[in-house]
Design goal:
- The protein is an all-alpha fold.
- It has a domain of 27 residues.
- The chain is built from three helices and no strands.
Length: 44
């Protein structure tokens, strides 16, 4: 994942007023996964 995409994901989440936890719940993933995506990390 590019850092540009990671930044866009974080910006959209914040624009919608979601916490990482809320977005994770809506997507059916862990909060840690959302955090990694927003940092541009694909693998552990």
């Amino acid at each position: 994942m590019t850092l540009e995409l990671a930044d866009r994901l974080a910006a959209l989440r914040k624009e919608k007023g979601y916490s990482q936890e809320e977005l994770a719940e809506k997507l059916g993933v862990s909060r840690q996964a959302v955090s990694k995506w927003e940092r541009g990390v694909l693998h552990s």
